[in-house]
Write a structure and sequence with these properties.
Layout lengths: L1 H19 L1 E7 L6 H16 L4 E6 L7 H9 L5 E5 L22 H21 L2 E3 L3 E10 L7 H4 L5 E3 L3 H9 L5 E3 L4 H7 L4 E5 H6 L8 E17 H4 L4 H35 L3 E3 L3 H20 L5 H11 L4
Parallel strand pairs: 1-2, 1-3, 6-7, 9-10
Antiparallel strand pairs: 3-9, 4-9, 5-8, 5-9
């Protein structure tokens, strides 16, 4: 009888521990083994340890859950609880999420640092208010045009190419159409086959992403003009995050915030290394002339005005960024 009672109590304890454990299913485009995933898995292990197994982060890597837009749809129906996404992918819920993606907004790292110091807290607060818990942003690098064959240094040349954009990316589609380009939407997994078969022949991406996804094998040149800027983050639906006990929420926030601060610092170095690695692997650097560069700048300003008029970003946010870049705050 004593043995039966002991077994019954053990079963109750096991059942109780199962109730207390919460698994958050998170998707990411990053492949396993990348610096991004190494950091996230290390953070997940720390969270599991410090919450005594009450909070478990389970990752679906390499785009297996689909594009960022698909991941967001799966979060809304409860199939996932969050994901490592680009900031701009949440433009449907945060009005100025596309701010950093505006064409040729930043000239260099100094510009980036000055603007992000002011605008990161603003955008983070807007995300939280919209129901998306986040832990800060990690730099994804400058975005360049990569060509499969012919170098692209002018707008006229770009208009003759088949340019890839991510599926469902309304912002990129609109911006490229304003440049006179009819972009080709494809999933991330279809980009390399698309380059190899000629469905597309130009991609816009950061050096670190191109190298991580091994697209360089089908690319010939890099246009040496940063056309955009990427920021990544880990976001979790607030309603799912609030299922975690308050004390454990603080543990998750502390660990993940520290993780993203470290990623933000290391990603810049990794992206610069990736840029050089691509050149060492034979990617040709294509530099526009001074006149062509001036034309790129003029057109990018025109596209920005058009994106503001269409409501992708607010005039107030763009004006604030321009003020910061001009030396204000």
């Amino acid at each position: 009888m004593r043995l039966v009672r002991w077994i019954f109590m053990l079963c109750l304890l096991v059942a109780a521990s199962g109730v207390n454990a919460l698994t958050l299913r998170l998707a990411t485009q990053s492949p396993d083994g990348s610096a991004w995933m190494v950091s996230l898995r290390k953070a997940a292990a720390s969270i599991a340890q410090q919450t005594s197994g009450r909070v478990i982060l389970k990752f679906y890597t390499g785009g297996t859950m689909g594009s960022d837009r698909t991941v967001l749809s799966k979060i809304r129906i409860g199939e996932l609880q969050g994901g490592a996404l680009t900031l701009s992918s949440l433009d449907s819920v945060v009005h100025d999420a596309d701010l950093y993606s505006l064409p040729m907004l930043f000239r260099n790292d100094t510009d980036v640092d000055r603007v992000r110091r002011i605008m990161d807290p603003v955008l983070s607060r807007e995300l939280e208010d919209a129901g998306w818990v986040n832990f800060g942003f990690a730099e994804g690098g400058f975005v360049y045009l990569f060509s499969h064959k012919d170098s692209v240094t002018t707008q006229a040349q770009l208009r003759t190419h088949k340019v890839w954009i991510p599926e469902g990316d309304r912002f990129s589609s609109t911006a490229f159409r304003m440049l006179g380009v009819s972009p080709v939407p494809l999933s991330l997994g279809d980009v390399l086959p698309g380059l190899q078969t000629g469905i597309i022949d130009v991609v816009a991406g950061s050096s670190i992403a191109v190298l991580a996804l091994q697209w360089q094998s089908a690319l010939h040149s890099l246009t040496d003009v940063p056309i955009s800027y990427l920021c990544g983050m880990l976001t979790i639906s607030r309603k799912d995050f609030e299922r975690i006990a308050p004390a454990d929420q603080q543990i998750v926030r502390r660990i993940m915030t520290a993780t993203f601060q470290a990623l933000d610092r290391s990603n810049r170095q990794d992206d610069q290394f990736a840029y050089q690695a691509l050149l060492h692997q034979g990617i040709i650097l294509a530099r526009p002339s001074a006149a062509d560069l001036q034309q790129w700048n003029q057109l990018s300003q025109s596209v920005t005005r058009g994106l503001v008029q269409q409501g992708f970003v607010s005039a107030a946010a763009v004006g604030r960024v321009q003020n910061v870049l001009a030396g204000g705050n």
